[in-house]
Design brief:
Blueprint: E1 2-9, H1 13-24, E2 29-33, H2 39-44, H3 46-64, H4 79-104, E3 107-110, E4 113-119, E5 122-127, E6 130-139, E7 143-145, H5 153-158, E8 162-163, H6 165-168, E9 177-181, H7 185-196, E10 200-205, H8 216-228, E11 232-235, E12 238-243, E13 246-250, E14 256-260, E15 263-266, E16 270-272, E17 286-287, E18 290-291, E19 304-306, H9 317-331, E20 345-347, E21 353-357, H10 360-365, E22 370-376, H11 381-386, E23 393-399, E24 404-411, H12 415-427, H13 432-436, H14 447-453
Parallel strand pairs: 1-2, 1-6, 2-3, 6-19, 8-15, 9-10, 9-15, 10-11
Antiparallel strand pairs: 4-5, 5-6, 7-16, 12-13, 13-14, 17-18, 20-21, 21-24, 22-23, 23-24
The structure holds 1,4-dihydronicotinamide adenine dinucleotide.
1,4-dihydronicotinamide adenine dinucleotide (NAI) binds at residues 45-46, 148, 181-187, 189, 204-207, 212, 239, 267-270, 315-316, 345-348.
């Protein structure tokens, strides 16, 4: 048996980052991962989807270059080459993380870890035939796709007809007809990709809008952009069965319809992974299938922490990354806590969406007295130069009581890159007057945020 200060179960963004920070902070750390370092984000989520979407963007430019005076003829997409390039990007990043862990002195064990329990010595975890003992245990086991008991869904997943985020990123052929169940982040990003490369895409969403909690104005503009690109939407619809020829659903007026499909993507959310690795031996308090944590990422069991999707708070890689750090800082005795009010969310569709903080609706629901500043992206010279016919907006939500920005919402090119600025405004509790004194570079897309404040 080998003793450690910290055992980390799961090598996704929460786990691999926590391992680095822990080792850098002087903790003897072991990181146990059963599949591949980088977790869902690097291997079958954030990164591979961005590689695919970038290929689609280049292809889109070749098809629509005439709007900018550039005519390209004969461009085509080679799906196998796109996927091969995606795999190369993933491989580079995964091996980079391995090298970083090694450099930091983390012991990495590539095996299925099983918690045996906790005794006077600490937490006992078994992996690859060895027992590891840790003073602290950090759970970073992530999440998995939700697969509800819709007739035919699981059976047709087994045949490869239904896909999750994992399989959809590796398709070697472009499906003629793709039906996406769920108009959330994964559904929209993948609909965007397959629409660009030539599939007929239909989205079936049970809510009356897409992109879940995204600000309503942004969600509507995104919907209109997608309709204009030819994506079909069935909103407010309930999926009743998945059949070998397509997806059966009920429309809001009670009619039963079938959306024909060559492939189906099921993207209706994710749930925390809490089973199959001995967590029951520690019996932490759980809620709605996730491990309950406080702002220090502590669970109800002393010495047991949980960061990332497993705590079900905000299932985003960058949240996980920071949560891993906060957990380690608390183990190290440093003052640090998680604040969830300034976590950006991005959708890498074309156009991109970048949001942070309160939406108009959530601010009103929480009782803030707000002022809403809304400005067309056409006020940005760079946006106008680069987005022929674009209809993006910038929306800033201000808390009138303290004259502070509490929400920033953008639909525009580079939105994902520049939304961190909004996060800084909220996190540092900047007043609108402070912000107006800051010089933004010109001409840029980001200067729209400052401009909006003068509306
Ligand atoms: P999601 O929670 O974003 O969206 C799921 C959608 O499916 C919702 O709109 C929901 O109303 C709908 N839905 C649920 N049950 C349904 C049913 N039976 N029929 C039709 N619609 C149904 O979940 P998604 O897209 O699967 O993504 C999973 C997680 O991954 C999310 O937490 C997301 O934030 C994260 N993610 C983040 C990305 C990013 O930051 N760019 C990219 C991809 C995923």
């Amino acid at each position: 048996m080998e003793n450690f200060d910290l055992i980390i179960l799961g090598g996704g963004p929460a786990g691999y980052n926590a391992a680095l920070r822990a080792s850098q902070g002087g903790l003897k750390t072991v990181l146990i991962e059963k599949r591949a370092l980088g977790g869902v984000c690097l291997n079958e989520g954030c990164i591979p989807s961005k590689a695919l979407l970038y290929s689609a963007k280049i292809y889109d430019y070749t098809k629509h270059g005439d709007k900018y005076g550039v005519a390209v003829t004969g461009s085509s997409i080679d799906q196998k080459a796109v996927v091969a390039r995606k795999n190369k990007v993933v491989k580079t990043l995964v091996s980079g993380i391995g090298a970083q862990e090694k450099h930091a002195g983390v012991t990495v064990v590539m095996a299925d870890g099983k918690i045996l329990g906790k005794d006077g010595e600490g937490f006992k975890v078994e992996a690859d035939g060895k027992t590891y003992c840790g003073v602290n245990l950090l759970l970073c086991t992530g999440s998995m796709p939700v697969m509800p008991p819709i007739p035919g869904l699981r059976e047709l997943y087994e045949t490869g007809y239904v896909m999750t985020n994992r399989e959809v990123l590796d398709l070697q052929e472009i499906p003629k007809k793709l039906v996406v169940i769920g108009g959330g982040v994964i559904g929209l990003e993948m609909a965007s990709y397959y629409n660009s490369v030539g599939s007929e895409v239909t989205i079936i969403e049970m809510l009356d809008h897409i992109a879940g909690p995204t600000d309503a104005d942004i969600s509507k503009i995104l919907l209109n952009n997608y309709k204009a690109k030819g994506i079909k939407f069935n909103l407010g619809c309930k999926v009743t069965a998945v059949l070998p020829e397509g997806v059966q659903f009920e429309t809001p007026d009670g009619k039963s319809e079938i959306a024909p499909a060559d492939k189906v993507l099921c993207s209706i959310g994710r749930r925390a992974v809490t089973q199959g690795y001995g967590l029951e031996t520690l019996n932490p308090v759980m809620e709605r299938g996730a491990v309950v944590t406080d702002e220090y990422l502590k669970t109800s069991v002393p010495g047991l922490y949980a960061a990332g999707d497993i705590n079900g708070k905000i299932m985003l890689a960058h949240t996980a990354y920071r949560e891993g750090e906060v957990a380690v800082n608390n183990i190290l005795g440093k003052k640090d806590r998680m604040r969830y009010n300034a976590i950006p969310s991005v959708i890498y569709t074309n156009p991109e969406v970048g949001c942070v903080g309160e939406t108009e609706a959530s601010a009103k629901a929480k009782g803030y007295d707000i002022e809403v500043k809304k400005l067309s992206m056409a006020y940005s010279g760079r946006y106008l130069a680069e987005n022929e016919g674009g209809d993006g907006i910038c929306k800033v939500i201000i808390d009138k009581k303290y004259n502070r920005v509490i929400g920033v919402h953008l639909i525009a090119n580079y939105a994902a890159e520049l939304i961190y600025g909004g996060a800084m405004m909220i996190e540092t509790e900047m007043t609108v007057d402070n912000l107006k004194e800051i010089v933004f570079p010109h001409p840029t897309v980001c200067e729209i945020i400052r401009e909006a404040l003068f509306e």
